[in-house]
Amino acid sequence: MSDHADATDGPAVRPLPAFEPPYYVVVFSSVRTPGDRGYGEAADRMDELVKEVPGYLGHESARNPGGLGITVSYFRDSAAIEQWRSVGEHRAVQKQGRAEWYERYTVHVAKVERSQEFERE
């Protein structure tokens, strides 16, 4: 996924709102290989495709100048995560990512039982 909040909102200027628990997060931390080689286009396509999954709530991403990227995706339930994992085009892009775009990555999946937010007036 690209380095911004949910693609419907454009580049993030604020975080997504706190969702009503319980829900799930998928935290994808990565270090990219040099160059784009189609990564941006594939990320944009995944941004579009994941929105078709019932139970997808949104995502936020950031990448620091040193190359560490973190994307947090929000899903209503584990069934939505499994559906996203099973999308053929997503699986193909994952395979390409391991072959070309990532030096390393980790994926963490967690159930959120508490969520809150704050915004200065």
Automatic annotation (TrEMBL):
GO MF entries: monooxygenase activity
Cited Pfam families: ABM (PF03992)
Top-level taxon: Bacteria
Domain ABM: 22-95
Keywords: Monooxygenase, Oxidoreductase
InterPro entries xref list: ABM_dom, Dimeric_a/b-barrel, Jasmonate_Hydroxylase-like
Gene3D superfamilies: 3.30.70.100
Family annotation (SUPFAM superfamilies): Dimeric alpha+beta barrel
Oxidoreductase is among the record's keywords: yes
PANTHER family the UniProt entry points to: ABM DOMAIN-CONTAINING PROTEIN, BLL5343 PROTEIN
Protein's name according to its UniProt entry: Antibiotic biosynthesis monooxygenase
Organism: Streptomyces endophyticus
Taxonomic placement: Bacteria, Bacillati, Actinomycetota, Actinomycetes, Kitasatosporales
